[in-house]
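[Meeting: bench + compute handoff]

Bench side (C.D.) handed over the final construct sequence. Compute side (W.E.) agreed to return the predicted structure before the next meeting so the bench team could plan truncations. Sequence as handed over:
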Amino acid sequence: MADTPATVFLKAHRVAYTEHEYAYVEHGGTEVSSRALGVPEREVVKTLVMQDEAGKPLLVLMQGDRKVSTKNLARQAGVKRIEPCRPDAAQRHSGYQVGGTSPFGTRKKLPIYLERSILELPKIYINGGRRGFLVGIAPGELVRALSPQLVDVALAD
C-alpha cells in the first residue's frame, strides 16, 4: 500500500499502527467504516476541520457516534465562535480530500482539539490520509504524536 502524508508522519514519529481498508461510501461517515471493520462506532474517530470567527482553521477529533458542541468548543478554545469549514477550505487547510482527512501530516500545522472521552478507549481507528483507509492506534500514541488540547465537547448523536 502506498504511503500517505499521514503514514509518513506516523512512521517518522515512531507511532505503532495497523492499516485498515474498507469500501468508501460518499457521505457514509463513521457508520460505514465501523460496520466494515466490525468495531463500535465510538472507536472510529472523525477528524473535523473547523474555523473560528476570524477564519483560523483547527481540527477537532471526535468519536464517530458523537457530535461536537461548537458552543462548548469555542468557550474551551477561548474564541467567540467555531463552525465547520466549507469542503474546499477544509481541503486547502489540511491537504486532504474531505472524507479522507487525517490529523497526521496536515499541509499546515493546525491546532488540534481532542475529545477527552477518546482517551478511555483501548484502541481507536482514525483516517489514514485517504478515503477508505483508517489506521488503528492507541489513544495515548495519538496524544504523544500530536499534543492536542483535551476538551469536553461531545454531544450524543
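W.E. noted at the follow-up: The mean pLDDT is 95. C.D. will use this when planning the next construct.
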